[in-house]
Structures are given as structure tokens and as C-alpha cells.
Please model this.
Amino acid sequence: MPITVNGHAAVPPDDPRVSLLDYLREHLHLHGSKKGCNQGACGACTVLVDGERILSCLALAVQCDGREVTTVEGLANGGQLHPLQAAFVEHDGFQCGYCTPGQLCSAIGMIAEVERGVPSHVTADLTGDVRLTHDELRERMSGNLCRCGAYNGIVDAIAETYAQNRAVAPDVADTRKVAA
Ligand code: FES
Ligand code: FES
Model:
């Protein structure tokens, strides 16, 4: 079956050993997803598969047969940036930009996890709705490293973008607390 990448059908690789990251970058020439560590430690390669964030360096392309893959190239709507992309620009959520595609895809997948009620390591109450507090946000994004240290801008951008989300705690957009 074809793999759908950013809304377009793509032929899976003949070689079943090809990682999803190499497939995207080397076969489809989508260079937005970055190869940092290539061993699951940095998050630079994060993409969405059927709406869930995964590390594409640790996945095989053939595992995505019949599934929908979204990379950073698929986030904008035509010439209009995804709201989270615009917030990254507004809040200086990047410097060199190497980690940014992974940060963006990871944050979008992370919000969906919160909405589904998936707990994290710091979720204290496992019996109620999960709320995206400051600690939850930072914990849930901790798999995406930024060598430039743009973390405060990244967190601000995510917090502002999803501040109206029902799963987001009311004070999460208080950037002074986030940056503390
Ligand atoms: Fe995949 Fe670092 S390149 S986690
Ligand atoms: Fe440079 Fe994150 S902006 S690594």
C-alpha cells in the first residue's frame, strides 16, 4: 500500500531496512525532518504518523504502509504558516532552526496526547483529565533537545498557541512563569 506523506501518495522503498527518516530525506527529498543523533535521543527527526508523534530515525518506512505521515513541510496551509509555526517566529522559538521541525511536530502530537488524557511522568492525578500545566509542558517536550537553548521561546510559543485549548491549564500561557 502507498504511504501518504503530507497528503500525497508515495511508493514505499523496496528495501525494508530503510528508516522512515532516510526515506523522507533521501527518497522523497523532504529535508525538513532532521537527522541529529539517529538513535532516538534528540527528537530532531520527530514526525506525525496518523497524528501521533514518532521518532522517524527509529521507525522503518515500510511500517508506514497505508498510514499518513506528516512532516514539517505539511504543517503550513498553502502560504499560511501553521499557528504554532507563526508563534515560534513571534517568540524566537529557534536560533539555528535545526531542532525546529521536530519541536513543531512533537508539540502538535503532544497536545493531542494531552487531549486524549495520556499521562506523563509528572502527572499527579491519574484519575482525572490531564491538564497541560507548565511542568507537564516541559516534561512532555523533554524528548526534543535544542542545542541553541531556545527552550523558553519554544515553551512560550506552544503555551500561547494552545492557551485556548480545553486541556491546557489556564495559567500555562503565563510566560513569565514558564520562563522562570
Ligand atoms: Fe531521531 Fe535524534 S535523529 S532522535
Ligand atoms: Fe538550534 Fe534548537 S534552534 S538546536
About this structure: Confidence is low (pLDDT under 50) at residues 176-180. The chain has two domains: 3-74, 83-178. The domain at 3-74 is CATH 3.10.20.30 (Ubiquitin-like (UB roll)). The first strand starts at residue 3 and ends at 5.
